[in-house]
Specification:
- The chain is of the alpha+beta class and 417 residues long.
- 34% of the residues lie in helices and 24% in strands.
- 46% of the residues are buried.
């Protein structure tokens, strides 16, 4: 039988090594786009190899290196997938940063730099936990499968999506180190429909409008003025989901500063993100299009969104309107009492003395690919949420150290239960 206290003490005794790993990962630029992750993949592979962890790099295409590392006995027990992405979003305007976004500097109890929260320090925690278990030869009644992917920040097809859908990796549960905060984990997330709405008209000289021709922009706008009715779709879910949804809304209200923003969790959101149309100012346009981002809460399907869209078009009484879907993903979730969720919750209680909140996410991530494959999945990782995808990204040192303790304990708990 293993001793949780001893596992935590091992992490604490090596915290300086953990923090060096965090800083090193941040110092390696892996901005996506453009998505050049070769240097950081090489660094991670060497880290694993120095701990005698079986590791390989798999490339579905040349520009997309995925790391797969394995530890434990593949012939018996369960398989636990640990997942993280090594790419980060662009830094934007450097003048808006108070520090070098690739410094990895540690001061005032925080680690500074792009990817500190999303999610290089969470990834470092997974790597370090796996390395510690290998170094200490902790007995595992099953197998850890670590996957480090190159393209999560661009919803790419050659990372987690490919690994799961191609059957390259399989597991009984998955733990992703995406940023959630120490007291919170994510067990469900919204889906997405990207709609391209197209309007067709008849060209004519602009001086004769509206008596000749058919203005495609006018037609498009008459539909767009009703497109927000998609928000009125009523989700359908059971009592347990309804209760967790309300808890998630309360958490969102606490974390999101915009008044009313908690409503995004149990309603569709509709964002008209792009409009194009017309050829020349003195011509009646014969074509216009709009691109619309719709996010779907649990209890709403892409089919329900399409039904509402068809009703909106019909009620607008406008000819010449067509549509097509781009990216589509269904809302997805994991049972709040799944074994991997309980394993993380137990270790959060031991390390932080806190009850873990199990909530739904208003965005989406690679977790959906595991869930679509029937693999119970949760996200848990250290984070200062205000810096994610923004300027001056940081994470608290103690959050990273404690998250690594929790990862180590949860891995052993899940596999040896």
């Amino acid at each position: 039988m293993y001793d949780h206290k001893k596992l935590y003490e091992l992490v604490e005794s090596r915290r300086d090594q953990l923090l060096v790993l965090c800083s090193d990962l941040i110092r390696i630029p892996s901005v996506n786009p453009p998505g050049d992750v070769e240097e950081i993949v090489s660094y991670i592979a060497k880290f694993l190899e120095t701990r005698d962890i079986l590791c390989r790099v798999v490339r579905p295409v040349e520009s997309a290196p995925n790391i797969i590392a394995e530890l434990g006995d593949p012939s018996s027990g369960k398989k636990l997938i640990l997942n993280g992405h090594c790419d980060v979003v662009p830094v934007g305007n450097l003048d808006k940063w108070d520090f070098d976004p690739f410094s990895g500097e540690i001061r005032d109890g925080k680690i500074h730099g792009r990817g500190a929260s999303d999610m290089k320090c969470g990834l470092a925690g997974l790597l370090f936990a796996m390395g510690l278990l290998a170094d200490e030869k902790i007995s595992l009644q099953g197998q850890i499968i670590l996957t480090v992917v190159p393209d999560e920040e661009v919803s790419g097809p050659w990372g987690t999506k490919w690994l799961v859908e191609s059957g390259t990796i399989k597991g009984d549960a998955a733990l992703i180190a995406e940023p959630t905060g120490y007291f919170n984990c994510e067990i469900g997330q919204k889906g997405c429909c990207w709609i391209k709405l197209k309007a067709y008209g008849e060209p004519a000289h602009g001086s004769l409008a509206p008596y000749t021709g058919g203005n495609a922009i006018d037609r498009l706008l008459k539909v767009l003025q009703h497109i927000h009715k998609i928000r009125d779709i009523v989700p359908r879910y059971d009592e347990d989901t309804a209760r967790l949804m309300e808890e998630s809304r309360l958490m969102a209200k606490r974390l999101l500063k915009a008044p009313g923003a908690q409503h995004v969790l149990n309603h569709c959101t509709v964002n008209i993100g792009k409009i194009n149309g017309g050829t020349k100012v003195n011509m009646v346009p014969d074509y216009a299009e709009a691109e619309i981002d719709v996010r779907l809460p649990l209890g709403v399907s892409c089919e329900m969104v399409e039904e509402m869209l068809l009703m909106i078009i019909s009620e607008s009484c406008i000819d010449g309107i067509k549509y097509e879907f781009g990216w589509k993903s269904e809302p997805n979730g994991t049972d709040q009492k799944a074994a991997i969720v309980e394993a993380v919750a137990q270790n959060v209680r031991r390390v932080w003395g806190e009850t873990l909140n199990r909530t739904y996410q208003w965005a989406s991530s690679d977790a959906r690919f595991f869930r679509y494959a029937g693999i119970p999945t949760l996200q848990y990782g250290p984070a200062n949420l205000e810096g994610i995808h923004a300027y001056n990204e940081t994470v608290n040192v103690q959050d990273v150290v404690n998250a690594t303790k929790i990862y180590t304990g949860a891995i052993v708990d899940y596999l040896n239960s």
